[in-house]
# Entry
Amino acid sequence: MERIIKERSTQVHTIGTSVHDLDCEKKSLAGSVSQRACVFCGSRVVLYPIADALHLIHGPIGCAAYTWDIRGALSSGPQLHRLSFSTDLRERDVVFGGEPKLYTALTELIEAYQPKAAFVYSTCIVGVIGDDVEAVCRKVSAEQKIDVLPVMAEGFKGTKKDGYKAACDALSKLVGTDNEFQAPPFSINILGDFNLAGELWMLKEYYEKIGVNIITGLTGDGRINEIRQAHKASINVVQCSGSMMHLAKEMEEKYGIPFIKVSYFGIEDMADALYEVAGFFKNDEMLEKARNLVSEEIKTLLPALAPFKEKLQGKKAAIYVGGAFKAISLVKALRLIGMKTVMVGSQTGNKDDYNLLKKLCDEGTIIVDDSNPNELSEFVKEKGVDLFIGGVKERPIAYKLGIGFCDHNHERKEALAGFEGMLNFANEVYASVTSPVWKFFKR
# Structure
């Protein structure tokens, strides 16, 4: 393919044709204009859903563009996470240092909003000028008697995945700080779900129906006090492994809490997520309740999906999302409604993820790691796709090429997880692919 940068050729694999294994988990190539976001963004999207905490960006005002709505996480109570605060560093602060400004901002904001804790995000310029963010946080924490947690997420330090680790490092300072809490039996934490469009509430309802208690969601609809109690769970159920695996492994090492990786997208993976938790607790009654719940949901869902499958049969889809685990679920979900995946990729996938995608997808499917707009445009044109599934950065590519688009990233406002979400997904795909607007586009 003409528009692939030579040094990136090993990060593109065509099933049945390529002789090389797919290369992944590398830093983005200079000049590639990767779809990946920066370290700072990665930390923000993980921590922002904690609704009763103060979130302060220490940096220039432009970084404050990464605000609540880039994750769009809903809260059942406090709305403090929806406010965006910045120290708004200027040229003078770059020369003389921004620590006094950070101290003043933190003190005033904590006194005004009385948060349960505060997160302070370092940005690129802070890493350059050398502000001691951790020292300021310690000082304010001692004075205000709340946890003020530095998130060392200078954007130039790596990729979005490094931002996930910075967020997990901050969370680990809270986990385990409430030892008085007594967890009820069959307690779990849900890690890596961010309550987009209220999805976490749907998942909690499923688990509660089979007799499972949720201590906290990390970080969807998050609360500081619940995070302190998270170490009392029997198991961590990890939905977005890219963002939360670091914390899951640390909690296993520190508190002996095992974890399982699940996905809540599509019928197969949603059902497996319930069965795996019931299997972990070795509880026959719970397993029977899970089977009954899945059976009842499928009885309603499959007939509802049938008309979509009839209309979408044989249509082709391209997928490019943040985490490859989500891409795996999407391949299965598309197959359920009659669509074929001809291109699939992610920003942060690992070898195991891509090997599983190779087994799931048909011969000729393109698998790509850490792609860029030029490559993605070429792939979807080459394969003649009818639908592109991605996020806000992929949407313009689809629309410019006259292709239907489905937003499956963290900006979306439609619940796509769980059994109910599968029906929403099918409806959105159908509406996008069959829209009459495409009659006016020449591909």
Observations:
- The CA atoms of residues 145 and 298 lie 51 Å apart.
